[in-house]
Amino acid sequence: MQGKKDQFRDYSKSEQVERTYQHMQENQTAARVAELNERYTTEAGYTDCNGNKIRETIMDVFKLLDQIIDESDPDTDLPQSFHAYQTGEALKDCIDPDKPTQLKPIPINHLFSDEEWKGLPDEVRESYYNYLDELYPEIENWSWLPLIGFIHDLGKVLALQNWGKLPQSFVVGDTFPIGAPFSQSNVYYKQGFFKKNPDLNFEEKSDNHLFGKYEMHTGFDHLDMSFGHDEYMYSVLKRTIHHLPKEALYLIRFHSFYPWHTPRDGKPRGYTELASAEDWRMLPLLKLFQQCDLYSKKAKLPNKEQLKKYYDELIKHFIPGRECEYDLRSAKLLW
Question: Looking at the whole model, is its pTM more than 0.85?
Answer without folding.
Answer: yes
